[in-house]
From TrEMBL:
Catalytic activity: 5,6-dihydrouridine(47) in tRNA + NAD(+) = uridine(47) in tRNA + NADH + H(+); a 5,6-dihydrouridine in mRNA + NADP(+) = a uridine in mRNA + NADPH + H(+); a 5,6-dihydrouridine in mRNA + NAD(+) = a uridine in mRNA + NADH + H(+); 5,6-dihydrouridine(47) in tRNA + NADP(+) = uridine(47) in tRNA + NADPH + H(+)
Assigned EC number: 1.3.1.-
Keyword Cytoplasm applies: no
The C3H1-type domain, residue ranges: 108-138, 151-176
Biased composition (Basic and acidic residues): 48-63, 70-84
Gene Ontology molecular functions: flavin adenine dinucleotide binding; RNA binding; tRNA-dihydrouridine47 synthase activity; zinc ion binding
Name by which UniProt lists this protein: tRNA-dihydrouridine(47) synthase [NAD(P)(+)]
Family under the similarity heading: Belongs to the dus family. Dus3 subfamily.
Biased composition (Basic residues): 85-103
Zinc finger intervals, C3H1-type: 108-138, 151-176
Phylogenetic classification of the source organism: Eukaryota, Metazoa, Chordata, Craniata, Vertebrata
One of the GO BP terms on file: mRNA processing
């Protein structure tokens, strides 16, 4: 259901009836209490309609009373114990569940069928009796969990499901004699098509692990960095000076010889030139590899970032299936999840999986994190040679302690010498634009981005993304768009994208009143991925619960295609679906809002949806998210356990 509404200009006291700051304003007929809300969900939507907050039989509650949760029973606590608990709570890491239970998808499928049988190989299993997998098909079929559905998305899309008997939708493509069927016409139509690129091949992985991959350009750059007494950046500055020297036959360099120093060489016109400066002279001579490989800035691949909608690189939730959903809704630029450069150089499969690119991602980049010039430059050279991307992004905005304490993420903003070496080094080995994502600073009231941006222009970045919060703020309080506007003026003519608190087309319009070149969306896209459509069509979309369920169903289809349709892939898809639902449950339907638009940092009170599914999707209880996943992926395993990675820290 789609409706067009004009946004009401929110006031400073935007909240419940303008009095309860931090709470979303919802129409009173939909408000309810915590007990009635969970009673409805537990009953499966079979309760009477008059169970809503407007029930005439029950004593009427005011809007303020309906928002309050019942107070917990207070126990008498020893003062020392109270002080100890207070200290524990103060040390608790905000924004993440550090000690959450982690179940590997393989633990849900301990007795698996041997790949040689799944793939129907003509030769027997090379491991013979030592193979840890099942070879008896009848035994496996007796242990295998029941199929989830009648139709296999992989079979319908590609003509053949490569998971064969292990597929949880196997009845759609398994014959009576337990053979894997194929739709030859569909298979032929899909020949030569590569839906996903940037996979790590086994040969490259082996060479990375053995450290036999050459990094010629990176090693050459690092020699210039540490040339001349290991002074940071001194060698690079000399090399940068060389690039500004005209490439002509009669180039002359006037040396400033120190007292007592004798000239080592004389040029054609008799000018004395030292051996050190001679290396900087550009002459016409034999063609070398450096002449062929090294590109000038103007010769690199050009990307038009202007007025684009950029889906931020999102850890955990910004996976390939989610990016496909956002592309469908109108995202222009997509970027892979943050990858650690050291893990990429070591050939870790899990880290390389973050670089995968779907064919629908027409403007795609990867984001890398690191804190040393040598590893970051080598990583850039590796990516430049081995994968297909349109740009490479440096993460210098990550607030996580694990990254920051090593000097990466936000730590780079305070280590300008290293930051410069990293940017210049990566630029020297890349054929595609290099972009940087930063925050306003590290401390809350000590912004430093405006000092860094003019320097980064000199260092050669092609685009800057600025999140309008400091590291200390994380995701609390509002993003500082006035400061983003100031920084965008400093960055000109380099494009600067603003990021922070965009949840509606109204927020996007306000952001575009500044001088930013484009908008980056992060949490807003997780809460409502159709925000890209709203921005492009300049309207509020009152999307129905059934339409939202269809979006989730498409995500599960893409997940099964990406991670697999066997038990392991299905449970991995479920896990990522639940992580996404921990954000999506914060969405409040437009038709229920007293005041449009919803603000990203406003907490939704307990409310009844217009149908049972809408109420279920509004629940912030993990058990209700699991119910939604079971609608799409079947019942969870007996030993299933889940706790979301991210807490709703922004509400505090």
């Amino acid at each position: 259901m789609e409706t067009e509404t004009s946004p009401n200009i929110p006031t400073e006291s935007h909240g419940m009836n303008g009095t309860d700051k931090g709470r979303a304003a919802i129409k009173t007929q939909f408000l309810t209490t915590k007990e009635k809300f969970h009673e409805l969900l537990d009953s499966g939507g079979k309760g009477p309609n008059d169970d809503k907050a407007s029930d005439d039989a029950a004593p009427k509650e005011t809007a303020e009373d309906s928002l309050e949760e019942p107070q917990e029973k207070k126990f008498k606590v020893d003062p020392d114990e109270q002080e100890r608990r207070k200290k524990q709570n103060s040390k608790r890491i905000r924004g993440q569940n550090k000690s959450r239970p982690h179940m590997k998808p393989t633990s849900y499928d301990n007795r698996r069928l041997c790949p040689s049988i799944i793939q129907e190989r003509e030769t027997k299993c090379v491991y013979g009796d030592k193979c840890k997998f099942i070879h008896d098909v009848a035994e496996y079929m007796a242990l295998k969990p029941a199929d989830v559905g009648e139709h296999c998305y992989l079979y319908d899309t590609f003509g053949k499901c490569h998971y064969g008997l292990s597929c949880r939708f196997a009845r759609a493509h398994i014959s009576a004699d337990l053979k894997n069927l194929a739709n030859e016409e569909r298979v032929k139509a899909m020949e030569g098509r590569t839906p996903v690129r940037n996979s790590l091949d086994k040969d490259l992985q082996w060479r990375l692990r053995k450290k036999v991959v050459p990094f010629t350009a990176s090693d050459a750059y690092m020699k210039t960095v540490f040339k001349g007494g290991h002074k940071a950046g001194e060698g690079w500055k000399k090399a940068a000076t060389a690039e500004n020297v005209d490439n002509c036959c009669s180039a002359v360099v006037h040396s400033q010889c120190s007292e007592g120093e004798k000239p080592q060489t004389t040029d054609n016109e008799g000018t004395e030139v030292s051996q050190e400066n001679l290396a900087l002279v550009k002459t016409i001579g034999p063609l070398t590899d450096a002449d062929v490989i090294k590109l000038r800035q103007c010769e690199k691949k050009q990307v038009d970032f202007k007025d684009k909608l950029y889906l931020a690189p999102l850890t955990t939730c910004g996976n390939l299936p989610f990016r496909r959903i956002c592309k469908r809704f109108g995202a222009d630029i997509t970027c892979g999840e943050m990858a650690m450069c050291t893990n990429l150089l070591q050939g870790q499969s899990s880290e390389w999986a973050l670089l995968k690119r779907h064919e629908s991602e027409d403007l795609f980049g990867v984001q890398v994190e690191g804190c040393f010039p040598d590893t970051m430059t080598r990583c850039a050279e590796l990516l430049n040679n081995k994968i297909d991307v349109d740009f490479v992004d440096i993460n210098s905005g990550c607030p996580i302690d694990l990254v920051y304490k090593k000097g990466g993420g936000c730590g780079l903003m305070t280590r300008t010498n290293k930051f410069e070496q990293i940017i210049r080094g990566m630029n020297s080995v890349l054929d595609v634009p290099l972009t940087v994502k930063i925050r306003t600073g590290v401390q809350e009231k000590a912004n430093i981005a405006h000092k860094l941006i003019p320097e980064m222009k000199k260092w050669g970045v092609s685009m800057i993304t600025l999140h309008g919060r400091s590291r200390e703020q994380r995701y609390t309080k509002s993003a500082d768009w006035d400061y983003i506007n100031t920084c965008s003026q400093l960055a000109s003519p380099i494009p600067l994208f603003g990021n922070g608190d965009i949840l509606s087309y109204y927020d996007a319009m306000k952001a575009r009143e500044t001088e930013v070149s484009g908008i980056m969306l992060a949490r807003g896209a997780l809460i409502k991925p159709w925000v890209f459509t709203e921005i492009k069509e300049r309207r509020d979309w009152d999307i129905s619960s059934s339409e939202r369920l269809d979006v989730l169903r498409d995500f599960t289809h893409y997940g099964l295609e990406h991670w697999g349709s066997d038990t392991q892939g299905l449970e991995k898809t479920r896990n990522f679906l639940l992580e996404w639902l921990s954000f999506m449950c914060r969405y409040i339907p437009v038709g229920l809002l007293e005041q449009v638009p919803q603000r990203i940092n406003e907490r939704p009170p307990y409310y009844m949806g217009r149908d049972y599914l809408e109420s279920l999707m509004a629940s912030q209880h993990v058990g209700d998210w699991i119910k939604i996943s079971e609608m799409l992926l079947g019942p969870v395993p007996k030993n299933f356990n889940f706790l979301p990675k991210h807490k709703a820290n922004a509400y505090k």
